[in-house]
Amino acid sequence: MEEIKGSPDYNWFRSTVPLKRLQYPVYWDLLEFCDGFRKLLDHLQLDKVHLFGASLGGFLAQKFAECTYKSPRVHSLILCNSFSDTSIFNQTWTANSFWLMPAFMLKKIVLGNFAKGPVDPKMADAIDFMVDRLESLNQSELASRLTLNCQNSYVEPHKIKDVTVTIIDVFDQSALSLEAKEEMYKLYPNARRAHLKTGGNFPYLCRSAEVNLYIQIHLRQFHGTRYAAISPSMVSAEELEVQKSHLSNDRDSDDDQ
Questions:
Q1: Which one of 10, 23, 174, 229 has the lowest number of neighbouring Cβ atoms within 10 Å?
Q2: Residue 196 and residue 7: Cα distance in Å, rounded?
Q3: Among candidates 67, 62, 59, which has minimal Cα distance to 151?
Q4: Per-residue DSSP letters for 85-134?
């Protein structure tokens, strides 16, 4: 296992090659979502992609890779604060009733997972941004996302064992338990790990520089292949040397410990 460590670390999905940010429509079933996403890739004429997914987005990315394993559409995954089994939320028994609940109750459920207490300014801004985004979703959008998040399902790792994976997580408080993180490590024993000292639930917003660095490191292994996701002109020789030195120093530090 190669482990990447970093200093303290949009939305539901980001795919790269080319880089896109997606706001998907209302789906009530995981297979329905996977079929819709496959049709989008077909429309964009993308045969295989690299996917970045945070929280539910990471789970959906894994399920899409699993769903298409017989004719692979996912070349690699970057999973940020994500999970592999919806049972960790203890809401599978209510998943089929979210569509009946009013929007204010659904928002209360989501807000219950947001960090409480003092946080640094960047994390506070990230939370404020996500609260604004939450307010922009209607009842059906909220209910469908909670349904996908909580309906009984888990990732079957043997179907995506050939997909390259990087796992990004945080050491401070987030909606995911330590047990959920450990389960991800067990599921992907050969994955690269990128640890952030802080970042809460939204490190891709409040620690975007560090997360973007890890994304670049993940994608660099595909340079020179047909699945290269970063133009060589975007990465200077100096930056490459600095990042190689950074990783080398981290590994030396781990060996010393």
A1: 23
A2: 6
A3: 59
A4: BGGGGS-TTTGGGGGGS-HHHHHHHHHTTS--S---HHHHHHHHHHHHHH
As a whole number of angstroms, the distance between CA 19 and CA 151 comes to 29
Residue 72 near residue 48, CB atoms below 8 Å: yes
Question: Taking the CB of residue 9, how many other CB atoms lie within 10 A of it?
Answer: 31
pLDDT, tens digit, for every residue of 183-220?
999 999 999 999 999 999 999 999 999 999 999 999 98
Tens digits of residue pLDDT in 137-171: 999 999 999 999 999 999 999 999 999 999 999 99
Q: What is the pLDDT of residue 119?
A: 86
Distance CA 83, CA 228 (A): 27
Give CA separation, 168 vs 3, 181, 207, in Å.
10, 10, 12
Strands 13-16 and 49-54: antiparallel
State residue 113's pLDDT score. 78
Phi then psi for 45, rounded to 5 degrees? 60, 45
101 conformational bin, left if phi > 0, alpha if psi -120 to 50, beta if neither: beta
d(CA 199, CA 115): 10
* pLDDT of res. 236: 59
**3 state SS of 43:** helix
CB burial string 93-132: b at 16+ within 10 A, e below:
eebeebbebebeebbebbeeeebeeebeebbeebbeebee
Q: 7-16, 115-124, 154-163: lowest mean pLDDT where?
A: 7-16
